[in-house]
Design brief:
With 567 residues, this protein is mostly helical. The chain is built from 20 helices and no strands. It is 78% helix and 0% strand. The chain has two domains: 62-297, no CATH class; 339-567, no CATH class. The chain has helices at residues 2-19, 28-57, 62-95, 99-103, 109-142, 147-178, 187-206, 220-228, 236-249, 256-291, 302-313, 318-333, 335-338, 340-356, 367-393, 405-410, 415-445, 449-476, 492-525, 531-565. Helix 2 (28-57) crosses helix 19 and helix 17 runs antiparallel to helix 18.
């Protein structure tokens, strides 16, 4: 236990130093980040609470819908936790720079392994648990839960994260042990394929479109049974959902059922930790030794890559084209980078498919009004998806230089030109992705020509702002000493970027909501738009345009200034 404490202590001290100033006082960024986090969580809490209140207003099946939504949220969170921990486990267990030093110290393999498991647990869990808290707190507020619910919520979420982390660690150890040493990083490619398949299976397993189409069933009982059919008593999320629901509603008055499920959840978490320690004794150090060997470089596709690079760098000057060509080659040579394009493809397919199965014709609302309303809200949803993609690729663009950034800094290339060059490199792929998402979903929604034009133009402008904000925050919060580029976006800067960009998207959507409603109702009722309404429409659209322009140029200027002052 003493060895384990010594191995974990540096991470705890480092976190304390990042959180507080030398005088023991919290830094400004702690207050700023905390304030933005509170605003974001409050928004999520209000949104979830309104949904649950609406469910309660639905007779007969309202509680079943709320219970099904709880199971769906837990299953989604659990899946994301497993995926997140797999990525972090590979870095913490096998690729961290300080592992050689740690393995040379006189500590047991169990203590070293458990310390890395603890790092994996923290790195892969904290963000998802924090951002998921408003959803669960909304349940407690709507159902007027007592203190026992919040206690149960805390420790059961921790148990779920422990189970997900242990599953990920076991899978990672097994794959590293089986794969050839030269292809240790290629495991990411296989994991990405697994994630694509799992995302599709989880999505179809949940079948969320049935929530809005109860008429597809013969009766209420069949609808309720169908909602229950997506759950499995063998999943940890089922035990957690049953425990939380029992704490919310008090249906299990004796508490015996809840105690059994709590015991089952925590015993599973503890058993998985013990099993991983046993497995680590046999294969962990062998896997670490194999991961230290050099990997073979694959030369296939070199001519095609060279041709692609020549086409891409043609618009840039000679100095900047060298940087762009280097970034493209580094991206395609690293399997951990380009293999994530598979995830992106799966995301697009699932996202578009989701809109293709919406039973809008079953709604009591006017079909044209509902189609255009969903299309308008889809702009914000698609922008959030693009923000997540940008956080992984655009936000990390500056940090990707690594410790070689000093070469760029000491070169004749100006920081402004360097930053704008990277901006345009990522802008065009993001624009293509954005337009594919918005046009494909609008096609399935069968929206009007005006809504198709408005959403396409709005998405075009918002993507410019999203990419600029990602480049700016990546420049203001760079990490040139990262061990894994995927971890850069999980830090303070990445979370701040996600929150600020979400607020930027929300402001643009709100500014356009009023004009869109006026124009649609005018067309639907055949009433002409008066002069005051035209003034309001023009001012709102110009304000949205101004915010997009401001987001691009102001944020890029802030990023440029931050890099110039960076030492």
């Amino acid at each position: 236990m003493r060895d384990l404490n010594l191995l974990i202590r540096p991470r705890l001290l480092g976190f304390r130093n990042q959180l507080f100033l030398s005088g023991g006082r919290p830094g400004k960024k702690v207050f700023f980040m905390g304030g933005l986090g509170v605003v974001f969580c409050a928004f999520m809490f209000i949104l979830c609470a309104r949904v649950l209140i609406y469910f309660q207003s639905v007779d007969v099946i309202g509680d079943f819908l709320a219970r099904y939504l709880l199971s769906m949220v837990l299953l989604t969170f659990f899946s994301l936790l497993v995926f997140s921990h797999i990525i972090t486990a590979l870095s913490n267990l096998y690729l961290a720079k300080d592992l050689e030093l740690c393995h040379s110290t006189p500590v047991g393999i169990e203590a070293l392994f458990l310390s890395r498991v603890f790092y994996t647990f923290v790195d892969g869990s904290w963000m998802l648990i924090i951002f998921g808290a408003p959803v669960f707190l909304a349940y407690g507020y709507v159902f007027s839960a007592g203190p026992m619910f919040y206690i149960t919520l805390f420790h059961m979420n921790v148990a779920m994260a422990v189970i997900a982390a242990q599953i990920a660690v076991f899978v990672t150890m097994l794959l590293v042990h089986l794969f050839p040493a030269q292809r240790t990083r290629d495991i990411i490619l296989l994991l990405s394929i697994f994630m694509v398949i799992a995302l599709y299976l989880v999505f179809r397993f949940l079948r969320p479109e049935r929530l809005v189409n109860p008429e597809a069933f013969f009766g209420v009982l069949e609808y309720v049974n169908a909602l229950k059919g997506t759950d499995s008593p063998y999943l940890p999320t089922h035990w957690i959902a049953e425990t939380l629901w029992g704490s919310l509603t008090g249906h299990r008055g004796t508490g015996l059922g809840r105690f059994f499920e709590i015991l089952l959840t925590w015993s599973t978490a503890g058993a998985l930790v013990v099993i991983n320690v046993w497995v680590a004794r046999g294969i962990y150090f062998k896997g670490f030794s194999k991961s230290q060997e050099a990997k073979k470089r694959l030369a296939g596709g070199k001519q095609l890559l060279d041709l692609f690079i020549r086409v891409v760098v043609r618009p840039f000057g000679g100095d900047l084209s060298a940087i762009i060509a280097k970034d493209i080659r580094a991206f395609f040579r690293d399997n951990a980078q380009w293999s994530q394009l598979l995830l992106l493809g799966a995301l697009v397919i699932v996202y578009v498919y989701n809109f293709s199965v919406l039973p809008l014709d079953k709604s009591p609302m006017r079909l044209d009004f509902l189609q255009n309303t969903v299309a308008f809200l889809n702009m914000g949803l698609a922008a959030f998806v693009l923000t997540a993609v940008s956080a992984r690729f655009v936000f990390t663009a500056v940090s990707a230089e690594g410790e070689a950034y000093w070469i760029v800094r000491t070169s004749p290339l100006k920081i402004k030109r360097y930053l704008w060059g990277k901006y345009f490199l990522f802008l065009f792929p993001m624009l293509i992705l954005a337009e594919v998402l918005i046009i494909a979903t609008n096609y399935f929604l069968d929206v009007t020509g005006f809504m198709m034009f408005l959403s396409s133009v709005t998405m075009f402008l918002m993507v410019m702002g999203i990419v600029a904000l990602g480049m700016s925050f990546g420049a203001m919060y760079p990490n040139f000493k990262h061990e894994n580029i995927a971890q850069v976006s999980t830090g303070f800067g990445g979370a701040l970027y996600m929150i600020v960009t979400s607020l930027f998207i929300a402001v643009v959507i709100v500014l356009e909501a009023g004009p869109v409603y006026i124009l649609f109702m005018s067309n639907a009722k055949g009433i002409p738009v008066d002069a005051y309404q035209w003034v309001f429409i023009i001012v709102s659209f110009f304000a949205a345009l101004a915010i997009n322009v401001f987001a691009v140029f102001k944020s890029m200027r802030m990023g440029e200034r931050a890099l110039e002052e960076h030492e």
